[in-house]
Structure formats: C-alpha cells, structure tokens
Design goal:
Elements lengths: L19 H11 L8 H10 L4 E2 H8 L3 H13 L3 E7 L2 E7 L3
Antiparallel strand pairs: 1-3, 2-3
Length: 100
C-alpha cells in the first residue's frame, strides 16, 4: 500500500484554510491601533524622563518582581540604552538615554 501525504485533513478541508468570515475579522482586528503599551515600553518611558524612576515605582508600574525589573534594565543596556543610577538619601533612581 502506497502512503501519500495530503494537505487535506480528515474533514476534507485543506489544512490551514480559514473561512472567509474569520479571515476578514483577523485583518480588521490588525488595523486597530488602540493597543496598550507594553510593560517594557512603560519602563523605557519612565527611565528616559528627566526624573527617572526608582525600583519600587517600576515594580508598581509593571506588576513584576524587583529582580525581573532589574533584568529588564540589563536587557535595555544590551539594546544600547545608557542606564545610569544615582543614590540620594538611600533611594536609588535609574535613568536611561535612548540609543542613537
């Protein structure tokens, strides 16, 4: 018996095909520009501001744990952001300059 591969599923429809109504809905949904900013984008916005941001403020804004926020800062540094920190009265404030 010769086994051949087919692009059809057992239901008779070609695999990967999307009914027209679903396809139209997907393309319409991709045109909507009301997506909320990512948590990483929030961090960048806070860091590039003149005031900068403290670790507790970044944790509150993202809902992440502190070690995750610090790892995110490392990721930004790897992407070319110049991350600086100052400690005044025991409070460390982080600031960033976007890569050119």
């Amino acid at each position: 018996m010769n086994k051949t591969t087919s692009t059809k599923s057992r239901g008779g429809k070609p695999r990967g095909s999307v009914p027209q109504s679903e396809s139209a809905t997907r393309s319409h949904a991709s045109n909507i520009t009301t997506a909320k900013p990512s948590k990483q984008a929030k961090i960048v916005a806070m860091l590039v501001s003149e005031a900068g941001a403290t670790l507790p403020v970044l944790v509150e804004a993202t809902g992440w744990q502190s070690h995750t926020v610090r790892a995110s800062l490392t990721g930004l540094r790897k992407r070319g952001y110049a991350i600086t920190s100052d400690k005044v009265d025991g409070v460390r404030t982080y600031r960033a300059v976007a890569p050119e």
